Amino acid sequence: MEKQYTPVLKDEFGLALSGKHFKRSSFLRCLKLSIRRIFLLALARMMHVGVEPLPNLYAMKKILLVSVNQRLGNTILVTPAVSALIKALPNVQFCFVGGRHAKSILEGYAIKQIHTIKRIDTVLPHRLWRLITILRKEKYDAAIHLSTATNSLGAYITYASGTRHRIGCMRNDGNILFTSVFKHPQSRHKVDQIRECMQQIGIAAFDERKIILKPEEQLRAEDFFKLHFGDSFKKPIGIFTGGRQKKGKAWNLESFGIIAENLRTRHIPMVIFIGPEEMGNEKCIQSVIGSALYIKNATLREVAALVSKCKVIVTPDSGPMHLAVAVGTKTIALFSKPNFDRWGPREPYGKVIFDKSKTNTKEILNVLLEYYA
């Protein structure tokens, strides 16, 4: 599972960057987003307003689900809706259009086909047109946009699919993309929002975020830990040190070092997950945290399986936070911004620790030991 590699800084398209090119890449990304936003707004002004009542989903045979987002956590957050729809409509054939992580996250769900859109596809019109052509040929009975982002690429993909019934969230300036709409949810937490959206279209939704792992995936993860910790190993504590730096979500690395040292003195096994964004900082992470089992270059589902075999996961507000909740592992989520009631785990799935200074190791350790007991 661990492989040798040469760390390089990469941009969103996977192209190697040197320091002098990093600012240029950020500028080009902002320019690309601005051009796309202007194009989509102009397209929206040419569309008709849809005011049809919600259709009877129980009478349909083929439904397209759409949520195009490239962030891991945001894709995981639509799983309560996917789960609710599949349970409520067992005779419906579902297909899905999502971001780059969609196939890995939704593997195991009863979905006939999952189409993915990568970041680079948004600036290559022929790729999007090819996808739209495929969707239109399928002649779905309905398409449901599983996001409240009504000016997103996914919303326009829903419109372009040509489906007779297109369902989505009502925009502030009116419904211009969908034939039928539900109101913007009033709930604070994103999981509650997606449940509320489903209930508005007549689908009971109660599930949390969930990734369905195969028994063989879990067995491989367990064997991997036995190989490193011994056959009689205690479940380890997992630590993810990353977080989106530009959003201010990354935690104080020295705090993780203090936590790791305290766990070592108690002879508690640790697993440190090194994600793609932490590759270039790996040596620094190892130097601060010290002796532990480091996981890198694993696939998303390999990481999910390993996380599922951990006793507890400690992580800043990040994709791995959502992933840990989705595989059922107790999650200690570290927030430095007061938006934890919107994104963070709730009991019995885990606990949020809010600390603007990002240094509250005492409370983290107390909760860790409580969960680990």
UniProtKB/TrEMBL annotation:
It comes from the Bacteria. This is Uncharacterized protein. It comes from Kuenenia stuttgartiensis. GO terms for biological process: lipopolysaccharide core region biosynthetic process. Gene3D superfamilies: Glycogen Phosphorylase B. GO terms for cellular component: cytosol. Keywords: Glycosyltransferase, Transferase. SUPFAM superfamilies: UDP-Glycosyltransferase/glycogen phosphorylase (SSF53756). GO terms for molecular function: ADP-heptose-lipopolysaccharide heptosyltransferase activity. PANTHER family: TETRAACYLDISACCHARIDE 4'-KINASE-RELATED (PTHR30160).
